[in-house]
């Protein structure tokens, strides 16, 4: 954690140096999990494929593990219980960003100030769920702030300037809806996929997001990975099926909840 305390630095002649009282350094027990996926390629498929099948298989298993890691991070970041009362807000009624009278700029400013009051740093990263993004880019308050007089939707670059946030990311990833019934009643819509990122916004200070990362910065969360664990290998099964496999050993941790702020929607 970066030291932000005020210290008396003036030294009189022949006086002792002003000594800082070091803060205690905490520790946590870390447990990592192994994740792996493999993709089968039949020798006939490989011979008849119109594109590099091994490269495709490598991409599939890699994306699969990355998606799982993102979901694990999203579940942690969107868990209201992980935040102190001063680092979260649940919007409802007219305060929701779908309401034209709501004040997203004010809500974001309050969130930024709350983080700064805890860690002496403004958040530099914002993750916006897809549903929240749909509301923000159409919000009349944000559109009115833009100097451009053309009628258009708010863009990500606009949000960076309006909110003074260096990194703005839209959470668009989805996972298959495993609870979808085999038979759906007529007139009933059941989505094939579900959003990983719900109708919310997460602000966080992420060390290294805008430059060099140091171990002395207050950090929101980290994915801890075993050194050298990310590997891709191949093996043959029954002499006719080649298996492309990726392995990784990691686990995400929310190590500095004070460096984050959750804006959720009770109407979602």
Please name the defining characteristics of this protein.
268 residues; alpha+beta; five-stranded mixed sheet; four-stranded antiparallel sheet; 6 helices; 25% strand; globular
Could you describe the 3D structure shown?
The chain has 268 residues and is an alpha+beta fold. The protein is 25% helix and 25% strand. The chain contains 6 helices and 11 strands. The protein has a 5-stranded mixed beta sheet with strand order 2-11-7-3-4.
Please give the structural blueprint.
Layout: E1 33-42, H1 43-48, H2 53-77, E2 88-91, H3 104-119, E3 125-129, H4 130-136, H5 140-145, H6 156-163, E4 167-171, E5 174-176, E6 193-195, E7 201-204, E8 221-225, E9 231-237, E10 241-254, E11 260-265
Parallel strand pairs: 2-11, 3-4
Antiparallel strand pairs: 1-10, 3-7, 5-6, 7-11, 8-10, 9-10
What is the ordering of alpha helices and beta strands?
EHHEHEHHHEEEEEEEE
Specify the structural class: alpha+beta
Rg value: 24 Å
Number of helices: 6
Ends apart, CA distance between termini? 35 Å
* Beta-strand segment tally: 11
Poorly predicted parts: none
Strand content: 15-25%
Largest sheet features:
5 strands, mixed
The whole-number mean of residue pLDDT values reads 90
**Spatial order of the strands in the main sheet?**
2-11-7-3-4
Shape annotation: globular
Helical amount: 25-40%
Oligomer: single chain
Could you write a compact summary of the structure shown?
This protein has helices at residues 43-48, 53-77, 104-119, 130-136, 140-145, 156-163; strands at 33-42, 88-91, 125-129, 167-171, 174-176, 193-195, 201-204, 221-225, 231-237, 241-254, 260-265. By secondary structure, the chain is an alpha+beta fold.
């Amino acid at each position: 954690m970066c030291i932000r305390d005020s210290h008396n630095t003036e030294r009189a002649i022949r006086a002792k140096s002003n000594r800082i009282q070091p803060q205690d350094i905490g520790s946590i027990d870390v447990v990592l999990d192994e994740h792996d996926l493999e993709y089968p390629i039949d020798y006939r498929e490989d011979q008849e494929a119109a594109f590099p099948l091994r490269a495709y298989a490598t991409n599939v298993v890699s994306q699969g593990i990355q998606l799982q890691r993102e979901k694990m991070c999203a579940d942690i970041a969107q868990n209201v219980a992980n935040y102190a009362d001063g680092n979260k807000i649940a919007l409802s009624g007219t305060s929701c960003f779908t309401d034209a009278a709501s004040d997203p700029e004010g809500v974001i400013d309050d969130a930024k100030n709350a983080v700064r009051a805890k860690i002496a740093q403004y958040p530099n990263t914002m993750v916006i769920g897809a549903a929240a993004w749909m509301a923000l880019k159409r919000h009349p308050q944000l559109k009115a702030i833009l100097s451009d007089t053309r009628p258009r939707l708010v863009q990500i670059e606009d949000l960076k300037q309006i909110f003074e946030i260096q990194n703005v990311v839209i959470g668009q990833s989805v996972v298959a809806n495993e609870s979808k019934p085999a038979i759906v009643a007529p007139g009933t819509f059941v989505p094939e996929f579900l959003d990983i990122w719900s109708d919310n916004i997460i602000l966080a200070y992420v060390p290294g997001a805008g430059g060099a990362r140091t171990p002395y910065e207050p950090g929101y969360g980290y994915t801890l990975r075993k050194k050298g664990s990310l590997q891709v290998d191949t093996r043959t099964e029954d002499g006719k099926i080649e298996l492309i496999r990726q392995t990784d050993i990691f686990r995400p941790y929310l190590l500095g909840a004070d460096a984050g702020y959750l804006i959720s929607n009770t109407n979602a």
